[in-house]
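Q: Is it fine to ask for two folds in a single conversation?
A: Yes, each is treated on its own. Send the first.
Q: Here.
A: Result:
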Amino acid sequence: MKIACVGGGPAGLYFALLMKQQRPGAEIAVYERNRPDDTFGWGVVFSDETLGAFAAADPKSFEEIRRNFAYWTDIETYYGDTCVRSTGHGFSGLARVRLLQILQDRCRELGVELCFEHEVADEAELGDVDLVLAADGLNSVLRDRHADHFKPSIHWGACKFTWLGTTLPLEAFTFVFRENDAGLFQVHAYPFQVGRRPLSTWIVECHEDVWRRAGLADATEEETAAYCEELFADHLDGHKLLTNRSIWRTFPTVRCETWHRGNLVLMGDCAHTAHFSIGSGTKLAMEDAIALADAFERLGTDDVPAVLAAYEEARYVDTLKLQKAARTSREWFEHSARYLGQPPVQFSFNLMTRSKRITWDNLAQRDPALVERAGECFAELEGVPAGPDGRVPPPMFAPLRLRELELGNRIVVSPMCQYSATDGVVGDWHLVHLGARAVGGAGLVFTEMTNVSPEGRITHGCAGMYSDACEAAWKRVVDFVHGNSSAKIGMQLAHAGRKASCNLPWEGDDPLRDGTAWETIAPSAEPFDEGWHVPRAMTRADMDRVRDDFVAAAQRAERAGFDCLELHMAHGYLLSSFLSPAANVRDDEYGRDLAGRMRFPLEVLEAVRAAWPQDRPIFVRISATDWLPEGGTTVEDSVVLARELKARGCDVVDVSSAGNTPRSEPDYGRMYQVPLAERIRAEADVRVMAVGAILGADHANTILAAGRADLCALARPHLRDPSLTNEASVTYDVPAHPWPKQYLPARPRPRV
């Protein structure tokens, strides 16, 4: 077998030596445009997990890497005049040039041909080879030659960074946050060379606006180093900053739709990049090399296209996950100035958990002392006293007062449509469904989307609050919750708008076609999707009637004994469709711009707030973004909306997303809507409830302790486990959490 590796960085070298080790008879050559020792930057960093993979792949090169690396377990965060240290992590740093030397030496030892200062512009130049590995970096010539096939895309970040070195010896991964007149600068630093001549990487990053205000746009490397030495003088302790092509860059996130074409495969930075704040491109590149070598060994064939397809299938999803975590981390640093008001311990916990890969429970295993301090910090901020044993509860068990309503904890059962009502009247199913979640320990249980008129229902099976029968049925549920649990119960009020008059989900979930359909209304005569009914554009009289229906439903909810209300302004239902330019194309005072689109939903809130008892809170659920490149609601719009909602008496903004158009493309993932909630919380100065793939108590504690939200709403986890909160009280040893007396025999005894 003949293999040509184009690019003599870690990807090309490591794959070459792994394949030569696996197939000693193979002819393998590495082509590199630069000299053997020509590299930019300073150190590379690996986690313990990554090093474990290296040890298994090639023990000999790993031993040489291990012999040269600097190892540490701590992360230090310098914020203001405070340093917060977290331990239990496990990292290694190594000079980038030394890593290349180790891999080059191992290649020579195994018989790999190394061809330096040899540019390959076309794979045809390589002659008759079985496999061409394109590992020629971010500006890959071979990738760009076949761009129509690989379909690369590049997303540029909002920050500028420069990769400096320093003679300052470090003993931990070090973050430094420092403000000056231009704005906030942040340092990512770590040791990579120890001994008589210690060296460390010192990456300086700032938002592009800050970079320009600081006058760094035209700075030379020497001017950049001088500026940063002065800015971080008290952290450098007299040590100099060193340059090596240390120009200011914007980090590019590269993705390709596919990584292989015939016998050509992409690897490393030319295929995918990950922001340096979570993992290096070197890590990705070397793990790519391991995966491709494994694919050859696993399949045991010389059918190169088949092996490349198997490699991509095995590696693609894991790479996307890492890129997603890296993007989340990058975005945290792009908006880090948002968190400068947090106390140092909360700020550090926020930083540690920024990418969602480290959570409350995970960090508690690594560094229980920091998690304990984070819990104490949260309790102090929220005014939560310690218990008789001197401990404070985890954040999810902190009470929350909203007006005169006291919630026993921060866990909320999301509204979840059951499609099981009869003429809008709920029955035994709803009693058991909501009653089970209430006795399961959640602080607040919301009804499903409950409609203010018959024609406002999504389906014939949807719940209503528009008749005496509806009111009486709901009172039965409320009385059970109040009589048998410590939970509070809220009603979500809604009108389905243009998404009304549909079949039940298990009967097709599409618009009704027979005589059971009814007329739908919307801000504009625009159907939700192709083939859907065309709604009637609302008149002012329609708006008055709908507003009054909301008020009447709120009054019924008060009589039924509900503790709070939520107005549904999300997911493409009536009030949401007024807010979104993807649904509202009116050319009057209820359309045109954001102020116009907000007008009617805000009128409804004002009317309901006036009718609802002033000592009881009102939530509003919104779709913070339509997830469209243009023509939809943006999070910037939603910050403005949240300010207006707060000004009109909204106590909590429930931050969801999408639903206004089938063209939305949400970026799903764990806790994927939390960044929307935290931005609204920070910029609109309003309490928020986070929702969206919050998978349990661990996620809730992570979100709350970091100051990203005030409440966490969980839907599917509560469908799977109605007693989620009760069980968490056992896991976290919270004896003060009340259990139903009927279930006390099942509750483990508190620790002595």
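Q: Second one now.
A: Result:
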Amino acid sequence: MSTATGRETLGFQTEVRQLLKLMIHSLYSNKEIFLRELISNASDAADKLRFEALAAPDLVSEDPDLTIRIESDKDQNTITVIDNGIGMSRDELVEHLGTIARSGTAEFLQQMTGDQQQDAQLIGQFGVGFYSAFIVADKVVVETRRAGLTVDEGVRWESDGEGEFTIENIERSARGTAVTLHLKDTESDFAELFRIESLIRKYSDHIAFPVMLAGTAEDEKEPKIVNAATALWTRSRSDIPDDEYKEFYKHLSHDFADPLTWSHNRVEGKREYTSLLYIPANAPFDLWNREAPRGLKLYVQRVFIMDEAEQFLPLYLRFVKGVVDSSDLPLNISRELLQQNPELTAMRGALTRRVLDMLSKMAANTPDDFSKFWVEFGQVLKEGFVEDQANKDKLAKLLRFATTHNGDTEQDQSLDDYVSRAGKDQDKIYYILAENHATAVASPHIESLAERGIEVLLLTDRIDPWLVDGLPPYEGKSFADVAREGLDLPAGEGQMTQDIMDGEHKPLLKKVKKVLKERVEAVHVSKRLVSSPACVVAGESELNPQLRRMLEASGQALPDSKPILEINVGHPLVDRLSAETDDDRFDALANIVLDHALLAEGSQLDNPADYVRRMNSLLLELDSDASSG
């Protein structure tokens, strides 16, 4: 770092250098979005000043009309975006333009593949903001003064985007920020006024502040307002074309992709507010960080109050983007006061239902879009069964599953689809929890159901063990885990009760239980097995094995639990076990049957060495029998 008369040369944060390099090489086909990003930043700065001026009117007394001005100089090959918003101090400038203060940045960068098209999409989800200027400029200069500071407290920031930036104190008469882009020789067409005007109309017409454009020629010096300068959500839905809704979403989210759907609604009566809610097409890179900033942009009487007001939607809808503009909340509302405001509960409930209704309409009217949504956000939506008791019925309609009906891995079957195919005497919806799709499809637990043509939901997402605990009965059918004891199957011809089945094979069950008493809770004859010799099931009051493994992996201490062993008395291996008269061989074979059942269920063996020893002995005996024969 070198310092001279307040001038410093600093290095970009490592993540910034990486992002700049990736962005410049990946966004070549989307380069014009730099202007949208810079105008969006200027609009945010004006919003923030207007909010701070509620408590400190002197901040805007010198220049009360908030505007955004763009000046083009074709001779110098520069574009300057100027706002008279909140501005930045020296420390804020270093913080905002030298670092990326976002959790998960490292993980985001690890997702970069080198494929420019895929990387462009990821960068769009991350949000490029100010740094997009370097797509078209080989040098960027920022001059700024924070509202409330004096003329001699201005700051200049300058960089070529390669690895360092310089910063120095300057005198600046105007508050706010001016960003000057020294365009690359190959990007000089962006200095043409007609090009700039077309980009403003395309990307920024919805900005609520006047966006003014001026050039250096004599007939261009008088700035003219280019945009509509009216907050989009305050206009009538019938007056807003779809393209404007899409561009406003990109302004809000800094996403490149169009949203899947949106809902623009005005509520009048006991409480008055306007909401504009969007469902993105792609999940953000930090979707699974539950601590990441989220929420809607809050306005009160069209005055910006805060970004990411998370109080208006539950956590499981954290992917929703949008604006809520209230006529009832006080202008001096804070995050703390918002939590205590009685209006909030009613608004939160109404906005949550509106989002779920949007998804229901998408599922009904544009199922392909809903399939895309489910791939991106389905697991997050499942969190609602834990967090949102009031909307479980609405959420259940939206669930999608992989099932044994079609055998593929796609989660594209609804509960309505399942119920429509269920037999008249079937009063259960059957499911199996497994580590992955292959394990679920091959599970011994579903053999009898598959043979009888009974469909099974294949649940393999990490959230699914919690999901099934929160699922209410659907269309009069309760949910049944096929890997739990006491499986209740639809009545079949000649079907016996568990007690009768166990009674017919009592000596064998008693002998197996004696051998395995330290490893299993009970041994029963199975009515769910067809081709497998045995399976293990969980007791009614026990945690399912998948949930137990996840909790133990997270470090939670759980009480000891033993599975229930079910054996298929029609299987040759069980016949061999039943006929075995040598106690040592019976002991080894019984343990091997249990080991194989545990492995098929997805569990790890407590003592793999014992299993290997038993198997080696059994193989040697078989080899000896074959030789003597």
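Q: Anything structural to flag on that second result?
A: Two points. The chain has four domains: 3-230, 234-367, 399-481, 498-628. The longest helix spans residues 342-365.
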